What we know:
By secondary structure, the chain is an alpha+beta fold. The protein has 3 domains: 3-97, 3-Layer(aba) Sandwich (Rossmann fold); 126-183, Dna Ligase, domain 1; 189-371, 2-Layer Sandwich (D-amino Acid Aminotransferase, Chain A, domain 1), CATH 3.30.470. The protein contains 11 helices and 17 strands. The strands form 3 sheets. Strands 9, 10, 11, 12, 13, 14, 15, 16 and 17 form a 9-stranded antiparallel beta sheet that branches. A 4-stranded parallel beta sheet has the order 3-2-1-4, sandwiched between helices. A hairpin with a 2-residue loop joins strand 11 and strand 12. The relative contact order is 0.12.
Amino acid sequence: MNKNLRTVRLGETIGILGGGQLGRMTAMAAKQMGYRVVCLDPQPNSPCGQVCDLQIVGSFDDYSAARELALQSDVLVYEFESISAAVVAELEQEFHVPQGSRLLEITQNRIKEKAHLLQSGFPVVPYRVVGSSAELAQAAAELGYPVVLKSAIGGYDGKGQAVLTSPADLAGVAVSGPVVLEKFLALKGEVSVVVARGANGECAAFPVGENVHRGNILHTTVVPARLSASLEKQATQLALCIADSLGAVGLLAVEMFVTEGGIIINELAPRPHNSGHYTLGACYTSQFEQFVRAVCGLPLGPTTLLYPAVMVNILGEHIAALMPRIASLPPEVKVHLYGKSGAPVPRRKMGHLLLRSDAPDETVAWVEEMLGIGGNRES
Ligand code: ADP
Ligand code: MG
């Protein structure tokens, strides 16, 4: 029997590799359902550790720390991609790790992820893998400027990316080791779909979210997405098929570009996703509860949208404007703060707001003004 089909019963222990906000909200959903939760993170009193029964302080590539977590857990999950796939591969020999190391190994490496999508017939942005400055120049000429260079591993929130608008920009970049060069597309918009998949193949997609990024970091998600019915259906089908193609267990978030030519897959994440935070409040089942259900072998919950909503990220630079206003915010505004310690660092995700809204543009404008955000979408 597939050992992944095992049901983790209420009262048993979920071990989370990673202690960030995604782990925190997963742990809160799991605690609500009656599970014990332990986590591993290098930072003591991490956002997740604050709400867990126990946090082990240790590095993610430290097998002995991960094993210590595993020994206390009935099921192990990862909440972000920078966990060592080698450590997870070793853990899954001995312990119950339903997401598995293969999903992590593919999605933590842009080159492997794109190769999988391309080979499986999914639409991806035209790209080349380049390993030297000469290959970069040739690939850029073939793809046609503008292009965007992306590191193969470790990139998030636009880190490790450079847009090149003409051959003159080649002088400013040094390529060492394989990286991805992509055509920089004119986007009509961006959307994402979070899909849950159980070890038994049961799948459920959350509603399509319409995303706006500022400075390459997610700024807002609006649901329902303002897409034609056929594009909405296409986005959902693509996400479900990609999750199946990977044999994913747990959650898979699929980021997509909307272009004149249709929907193109941008990237994948094997975990809860920032663009799915609206589900915590606006859906019958949150992505965090669904994650717990999928990895614990429980039936998936209904993903029905309960009300139209807007999610706005709170970054470090917004904290000074937000804090004095928190007590006087309209009570309908749901404030989520992640318990991150230290002075708020610009671009760091500190929390998010969820607002029920039938007029998303007006709602976003109101929040932006409250947070002191200017109108320039690129800044
Ligand atoms: P990250 O891992 O940092 O989220 P992404 O590849 O998702 O990296 O890029 C972040 C954002 O940058 C995207 O959501 C999109 O707004 C913009 N972007 C990335 N690649 C392209 C592209 N090829 N064409 C147009 N915009 C892009
Ligand atoms: Mg992205």
